[in-house]
């Protein structure tokens, strides 16, 4: 579980190592409802951009082995307001 605060135009990075074929389970708890996820594979391929996990979370089957780069960031409209938003991010890998 990752707990942090996102400020306008300042993403919170989270990196983790995973194998191709792993199932990633993500759960974002954001009471302000202004945060989104972005994720990049080891090759630089973009997995997610502007994703908002539903109440049951989000599942992704990863296609590459290596360090996955996840970012929690504020939506553009919220960032322009200069706000900050706290969150909890749950990450779970299933092989």
Furnish the topology, listing elements before pairings:
Elements: E1 2-7, E2 12-18, E3 23-29, E4 35-40, E5 46-51, E6 58-61, E7 66-74, H1 76-80, E8 84-94
Antiparallel strand pairs: 1-8, 2-7, 3-6, 3-8, 4-5, 4-7
Q: Shape, please?
A: globular
How would you classify the helix and strand content by structural class?
mainly beta
H/E element string? Answer: EEEEEEEHE
User: Which architecture name does CATH use?
Assistant: Sandwich
| The CATH topology | Jelly Rolls
Characterize the main sheet: 4 strands, antiparallel
The DSSP helix count reads 1
* Rg of Cα set: 13 Å
Number of E-type strands: 8
CATH class: Mainly Beta
In brief, what are we looking at here?
This protein has 95 residues and is mainly β. Helices cover 5% and strands 59% of the residues.
Write up what this structure looks like.
This protein has a single domain, classed as Jelly Rolls. The model has no long low-confidence stretch (mean pLDDT 95). The protein has one helix spanning 76-80; strands at residues 2-7, 12-18, 23-29, 35-40, 46-51, 58-61, 66-74, 84-94. The protein is built from 1 helix and 8 strands. 17% of the residues are buried. The chain has 95 residues and is mainly beta. A 4-stranded antiparallel sheet has the order 1-8-3-6, with no helix packed on it. The radius of gyration is 13 Å and the shape is globular.
């Amino acid at each position: 579980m990752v707990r942090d605060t996102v400020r306008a135009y300042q993403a919170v990075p989270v990196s983790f190592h995973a194998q191709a074929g792993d199932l990633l389970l993500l759960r974002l708890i954001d009471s302000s409802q202004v945060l989104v996820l972005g994720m990049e594979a080891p090759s630089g391929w973009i997995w997610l951009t502007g994703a908002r996990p539903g109440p049951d979370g989000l599942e992704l089957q990863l296609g590459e082995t290596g360090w996955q780069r996840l970012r929690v960031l504020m939506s553009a409209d919220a960032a322009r307001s200069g706000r900050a938003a706290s969150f909890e991010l749950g990450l779970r890998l299933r092989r």
